[in-house]
Structure formats: structure tokens, C-alpha cells
Amino acid sequence: MSKYFHSLSQTPHRLKSRMLATWTPDQEVNQVRLRSGADMKRKLRWFDLVSLGVGGMLGVGVFVTTGPVARDISGPAVFISYMVAGFSALLSSLCYTEFSVNVPVAGGAFSYLRVTFGEFIGYFGGANILLEYVLSNAAVARSFTEYTCTAFGVSDPNAWRIKVNGLENGYNELDFPAVALVLLLTLCLCHSTKESSMLNLVMTVFHVIFFGFVIIAGFSNGDGAKALVEPRGLTPYGVRGVVNGAAVVYFSYIGYDTVSTLAEEIQNPSFSLPVGIIGSVSVVSVLYCLMSLVLCLMVPYNEISKSASYAVAFRKIGWGWGGNVVGAGASLGIVASLLVAMLGQARYLCVIGRARLVPSWLAKVHPSTGTPLNATLFLGICTASIALFTDLEIVMELISLGTLCVFYLVANALIYRKYTLTGQNSPLHTLSFLALLSSSALAFSLWWKLNKPWWGLLLSLAITIAVTVFFQYHTSLLSSTANKNLLAPIPSTWSVPFMPWPTAISVFLNVFLTTTLKKLSFQRFAIWTCLVTLFYVLYGVHRTYEAEEMGRDRVEFVESHVTTSRVQPEMLDNVQMVVP
After folding, report:
1. In a 3-state reduction of DSSP, which class is residue 162?
2. What Cα–Cα distance (Å) separates residue 320 from each residue in 147, 149, 151, 331?
3. For residues 429 and 279, is the Cβ–Cβ distance under 8 A?
4. Taking the CB of residue 394, how many other CB atoms lie within 10 A of it?
5. In this structure, is the dihedral angle defined by the CA atoms of residues 173, 252, 262 and 135, taken in order, positive or negative?
6. Where are the alpha helices (DSSP H) in 44-108?
7. What is the widest separation between alpha-carbon atoms in the chain?
8. How far is 393 from 387, CA to CA, in rounded Å?
9. Which residue intervals define the domain Cationic amino acid transporter C-terminal in the entry (predicted)?
10. Burial profile 75-103: b = 16 or more Cβ within 10 angstroms, e = fewer
11. Which of 172, 356, 414, 541 would suit a FRET pair with 282, their CA atoms being 20 to 30 Å apart?
12. At a CB cut-off of 8 Å and minimum separation 6, what does 315 contact?
């Protein structure tokens, strides 16, 4: 205990030493990864990634968020909300793709932010990703119970839940089927990644066929004039409702970033990762738009059920058997999406454990299965605990806020890495551009939210375009000079086209969509931010300081890798930290 209090007394010095400390991509790939003991097994190919990405997103979005958003936020224009969110997600996926090809480790956003902006930003991004995964998985597991009820012909979606008097509303309906599903999938993921991928592939194929059935049946039985025009028109809540809906349905695109966390388990990652990430986002965006449109064609938006929306919609058009089929298909899709999301969350926690920001036992990879066993079990138990009692509406917007925050940070990190760390721009110039870009996006967003005159929107948009054009012009001049002096940056294996525009638009959209969320979401997000920062100050920074600066991990590190014969002890002398 006295040692811990001594460590706390050195907190300011340790924060100064560690908060901005980074690893190079080479160290992240070849040295930090070795802390897990055994390697993860490279068995996945590009079609595995596409199916994992599609399977991971489909069950979440359509079956969980579409009904509530169409009824209360966007109206029949919910399909436009999906278009806006899908475009933003596609831009973010480009950022993830370039990072994942050049830093092919299982840490996803955590690793990308850590090699760019330092330890604390990486930790903050990783903590938010984990929050997003655990909460969304719990919410999706509860939706599984609702749709399974309809598959068996039970009219009340809450029939299989146990209501407990005395608990606060929203936490008083215990969902044991959701808990059982989460624990069963946890055991499956502990066994093997490849077998889990094959199970997902089979479920995803059936799921896409089922989607085709719903889309064809919906268009065949829907009445566009009655459903889209008669109640209050296409946009009953106005353009703002469409945009606000886009921020909420962004929750639906959780899943494609899981593909990037599988980088250590992929054959030929430089080819498979771009195909898997971009391909899955594109396919899912089209399906989301069609599925949300047919829901509003079948039933007027103000009559859509918030729970098991599609199954109830089929019953309302007289297809009782169709409601059972939808319940079964939706349940299958939810299982597939939950499987993929739980696959990704464990890999995030595993890599954060390698960095010693959480207890190191969470980083261990089982030598026979090649899976992060401890991280999988720990997060499975956490997800099951939340799924037992927490209602979807309580977590949905908080999930979207955390997702948008991380995607915003990754887009900024890619610009900084591309133009400063591997380019010729000074840090001050790039950071100034990022600050102006975010400021103009925030000004536009607040002007929109406060319903101010249109000229303010145009001015903010003009400033955003102007600073991006100036930055592009300045960097092109530097590149021309570097080419003449034979100092051109080393090209990456895969690069986002038309830089910096896709990333700049991604930053703008993420800021804009974030500001459309409700005040309560920001309050809950602030509480979470305080908690994770406190954990970093009281535990994380001291553990990483002792591991990296004082060398207390050295004995463990050497013993582990002499045993596995994958690295020589003398190689450890070359490990150096980079502090910008």
C-alpha cells in the first residue's frame, strides 16, 4: 500500500511522461503484440471479413433502431436518415481501412490513436469503444428476446421478461433469455475464431435471403400514397428530424470497425481489409435504406411498434405467418451481429491489456485456441449483466455519442499521421487546420441546432471549405518541394483517395451528428469520461510508467518470448519509446 501511495505522489511527473508517449507502428506490430504470449491464428480471408462486417451490422440497425426512429424522430424519411449516417460511416470506414492496413494489429481505434496522438487519447478512444460495444451488445441481446417471442407467436414482446416491482422504470424487466444468449456466444468465441466466423457466414447468408423476402413482401404489400404521404408527409418532423434520426441510427453501423480488430487473424491483410471494411459498409447501407423504406410502406409511421417493429408490421397487413417468419429471421440476424460484436470487443480489451492500461491478464491469448480467452470471458459477463436489466432506450443515444466521438478522433488521427508523422507538414500547421476544421463544424452545428438564420450556416460552411482548400494547397507545395529534394513521404500500401477531403468531411459530419443528440446523452457521456479518466490517473498511468519507463515488465516480457522462441532477449534492447 505504501508503494501505491508513493506512486500517487509522483502522478504529475508520470502523467507528463506517459500521456503523449507513443509507439511506432513497427513496435505495435512486432513488439507490443508479443506480450499476449501466443499469436492469434491467421485463418480469415476477405469473404470472411465481408460476412463478418455484414453480419455484425445488419441485426443491430434494422431490428433495433428503425422502429423507434421512424415513429418518434424522422417519420417516413427514416431511410434518408440511414443514407446520411451511411455516408458518414463510409467516410469513417476509409480512415479505418488505411490505418488497419498500415498498423495491422487487433487494437483497432485504440492502436491507431495511440501511435498518432499518444497513450491517453488512445486509452480514451479505446474506453469509449468498449463502452459502445458492451452497451450495444446488451441492447441487441434484449431485442433478441422480443423477436424470439414473435417467432413463437407471442403477441407481447415482453412476455418472456420478468418484471420486478420496486426497481426503477427501465431497469425493472429482467431478461434471462438475453443473458443465456450472451453467455452461450461467449463460450463459442472462446473456442475458435475461424469456427465462429463460419457460423457467422452461414447465419449471414440466411439473413440476407431473409432480408430479400422482407423487401419484396414489403414493396408488394405496401401503399406508398397512404404510408408516405397521408399521415403528415414524408418529413413530418422536418429536415431536423431527418438529421436527428441520422445521429441515432448511426448506432446501426457499429460492427464494421470489428473487421479492423481482426487484423492479426487475416491472411493477406493489405488486400482483405479494404475489401472487408468498405464492402461490408456499402452492402449494409443499401440494405438499411431498403428495409427502413419498406417498414414505412407497410405501416404508417405513427402506427409503427417500437418493439419488434417488423414482426408487428407484418401482422398489421394481415400476414400473421409473416410476422413469425420475421421474428425468426430477425432473431438469427441479431445472433450473427452479436457474435461479431463480441468478437471485436474482446480484441480491443486484449490490446489495451498489452499496453498495461488495464490488468495484463486480460491480454493473454490462449495457446491452443489462439483467442483472447480472459478478455472474452470478462466482457461476456459484463454484457450479460447489463442485458439482464437495462432497457434499450436508456443506452441507444449514449452508444451513438461514443461511436461518433471515436470516429471523429480516428479521422483527425489519419490527417495528422498522413501529413505530419509520415509527411512534411509541421505539427503546428496540421493541428491548426484540425482545430479550425472542428471549430467551423461546431459553429455550423450549433447554428443549425439553435435554428439561427441561414447566412450563419453558409458562412460556417464556406470557412470549412476555405481552410480545407488552403491546407491542401499548402501540403501540395510541400510535397512538390520534397519531391525535388528526394524527400517524398513513403507511400502506404493502401491510401484514402482524394485526401484530405474524405477525412475532412468525416470530421465535419461526426461533429454535426454529435450535436444533434439529446442533453441527457452528453451528461451520461461526461460521467463516463470522468470515470475512465480517474481510472487512468489512479491505475493506468502508473502501470504503464512502471512497465515502460522503469522496466518492471522486462522480466515477464523476456521469459514469455524466450519460451515461445519468437524473439531473442537482446532484441528488447532496441525497444524505444517515442514521445512527440
Report:
1. strand
2. 14, 13, 10, 17
3. no
4. 16
5. negative
6. 46-60, 66-69, 78-102
7. 75
8. 13
9. 494-543
10. bbbbbbbbbbbbbbbbbbbbbbbbbbbbb
11. 414
12. 322, 323
pLDDT one-digit tens code per residue, 242-287: 988 888 887 777 777 777 777 777 777 778 888 888 888 888 889 8
Q: What are the residues whose beta carbons fall under 8 Å from the beta carbon of 378, sequence distance 6 or more?
A: 349, 362
Query: What angle, 0 to 180 degrees and rounded to 10, lies between the N-to-C axes of helices 176-191 and 320-354?
Result: 50
Bridge partners of residue 365, in order along the sequence: 37
Positive or negative torsion for Cα 16, 18, 19, 20: positive
Cell numbers linked to 41: 491464428
CA angle, 221 then 227 then 228, to 5°: 120
Handedness of CA 72, 77, 83, 88 (dihedral sign): negative
pTM of the predicted structure, to 2 decimals: 0.80
CB 578 within 8 A of CB 114: no
Give the Cα separation of 26 and 32 in Å (integer): 9
* CB-CB neighbours of 226 under 10 Å: 12
Contacts of 89 (CB under 8 A, 6+ apart): 250, 253, 256, 281, 285, 407
Convert 556-572 to b/e letters by CB count within 10 Å (16 or more is b): ebbebbeeeeebeeeee
**Separation between Cα atoms, residue 11 and residue 304, nearest integer Å:** 54
Task: Find cell 443506452 and name the residue.
Answer: 395
Q: Which segment of 330-344, 421-435, 504-518 scores lowest on mean pLDDT?
A: 330-344
Q: Which residues pair with 173 in a beta bridge?
A: 163
Q: Using CA atoms, how far apart are residues 367 and 371, in angstroms rounded to an integer?
A: 8
Q: Is 19 helix (H, G, I), strand (E, B) or coil?
A: coil
Length of the chain in residues, anyone? 580
Higher pLDDT, 480 or 77: 77
> Distances from the Cα of 202 to the Cαs of 52, 205, 280, 337, 457, in angstroms?
11, 5, 16, 13, 48
| Tens-digit pLDDT profile for residues 505-530 | 999 998 988 888 788 888 888 888 99
Q: CA-to-CA distance for 23 and 35, rounded, in angstroms? A: 14
Number of Cβ within a 10 Å radius of residue 1? 5
pLDDT in tens, 288-319: 889 888 888 888 888 888 777 887 888 787 77
363-393 pLDDT, tens digit per residue, is 888 777 777 888 889 999 999 988 888 776 6
The answer for residues whose C-beta is within 8 angstroms of residue 326's C-beta and 6 or more apart is 147, 150, 214, 310, 311, 314
| 482 within 8 A of 488, measured Cβ to Cβ | yes
Among 533, 574, 70, residue whose Cα is nearest residue 296: 70
Name beta bridge partners: 266.
Answer: 44
- Give yes or no for a contact between 133 and 523, defined as CB atoms under 8 angstroms apart: no
